[in-house]
Peptidoglycan-binding protein (Pseudomonas fluorescens), 508 residues
Amino acid sequence: MVQVRKLVLAIAAASALSSGMAHALGLGELTLKSTLNQPLVAEIELLDVKDLTAAEVVPSLASPEDFAKAGVDRQAFLNDLTFTPVLNASGKSVLRVTSSKPLSEPMVKFLVQVMWPNGRLLRDYSVLLDPSKFSPQTADAAAQPAPAQTITAPTTGATHSTHTTTPRDTLWEIAAKARTGGSVQQTMLAIQALNPDAFIGGNINRLKTGQVLRLPDQVQSTALPQSKAIAEVAAQNEAWRQGRRYVAKPGTGQQQLDATNRGRANTGAAQNAKDNLSLVSAESAKARGKGPAGDAKALSNKLAVTQESLDTTRRDNEELKSRMADLQSQLDKLQRLIELKNNQLAKMQAEGSGAAPATAATAPVVPAITAELAATPPATPAEAAPATPAPEAAAPAPVEPVVEPVVETTPAADDEKTFNELLTNPILLGLVGGGAVVLLLLLLLLARRRKAQQEAEKHLRMARALEEQSFSQDLDLPESSFEGLEVPAASVKLNPAPAPAPAPAAAA
C-alpha cells in the first residue's frame, strides 16, 4: 500500500513538472511592418502559448538594469514603445510592438520582457528600418533635382573640429557624436563631402583607418534636406550590401560640399576666403562623372585603395621590425653573457695553469743545493794548511749562503675560487641536498619513534594506575561486608610476665 502511494505521488509530481514545462513561453522572430519616419509597427511571434490568456501574458520594455546587464543602450525614444499580446489571432499568437511617434533612427535595438505565471523571459531585438521603403510621394519628392545654388557659411574665425578614425569607428557613431543641428544622415553625408578621400569607393560604409576627418558645422550639416539624405544613405547601404561600387544616380539629390582650399585663383579672393557650401544638381554631377573627370575619379579611388593597402603593409612591416629589434637586443644580451662566462672560464684556467708550474719550479730547490754541497769533497785538516791560495779557498763562496726552500703560499683567491667551484658543482650540490633530505627523514623518524615511545610509556603508566586503583578498591571493603562473620576466640593463653627480682642490698 505504501509503494502504491509513493507511485501515485511520483506520477502527480511528474505531471505537475510536465505541465509547468509545457507553459514555458517563448519569443520568436520579429516581423517589421513599417518603414523609416513612420510609427513603428512590428509583430513578435509567441511560442508555446498553450492555454495562457492575454491577461496572464504581461509584456513590457525591460528595466534599465536589464539593459545595462545586456549591454544595450536604453535610448529615450524606446519609452514610447507599446507591447500588446494578441493570442490566437488567425491561428497564430503574436506580440504587437507599436509606437505613437515616427522613428527617425534607422537602427532600433530594444529589450523585451515577458512575464507569465510560470516565469519571466528577456530577449533583445535589433530592427533595421530600411529607408528604401519610402512612400511614392516621398520618392518623387526626392527624385526632383535641386537647382544649383551656393550657400556661403559665415566665417567665425574658428577652425573646424576634427576626428581621427580608429579601426572600431563607424561613420554613424562619429556623426551621432558630432551632430550640431541636423540628423545623423545629414551629418554623415556632410562629413563625406568634407572628406571624400577618407572613404573607399565613395561609400560611407568603407571608412579608412587613421584619417583625420573635418567635422561639419550646423550650416553644413543641415544643407541637405532630411529626405534626400535618408535616400542617399539608403542607396549607399544597398550598394555596400551588394558589394558593388556606388555611383550617384539621377534624382538622388546628392550634393557636394566645397572643402578645397580657396583663393588659389587670385589674391583678393584669398584675403576674403570663406567656407562655401556648394549645392550641385544631379545632372551636373553626372556630367562631371563622365569623360576624363570620371576616369580621374576612378583612378583616385583606386589610388586610395592602393595607399590604404600600402599603409597596412607598412604598419605590418614596422611591427615586424620592432619585434626583430627586440629579438636582436635579446640575442646581444645573451652573447654578452656568454662572452663574460667564457672570459671567466679562461681566467680560471689561466690561474690554474700558472699555479701548477710555480709549485713545480720551487720543488727542486733543496735537492739541487744538497747535491751541490755533496759534490764538494770534504777538506782534511792536513790539506787545509797548505791550501793558502785565495781563489781556491773562495771557491765555495757562492754556495755559502744557504738558501732556504721557498714555499709559495696559496693565495686567498685560490681558496675562494675552489670554494666557488664547490658551490657551483651540481654533483656536490646534489649530494648535499640528498644528504640534507636523508638527515631530515632520519630526524623525522627519530621524532616519530620518540613520540611512539612516549605514548607507550604513557599507556603503561595509565594501565598501572588502573591496576592499583582496582586493587585499592578491592581492599577498601565497607563495614557492612563484615557483618555476620563470627570471629573465633583466641586459643592461645598468654601467661603474665614474671615480676623482676629485687635488687640485692648494697654492702654497708
Observations:
- The longest helix spans residues 291-362.
- Residues 136-262+274-289 form one domain.
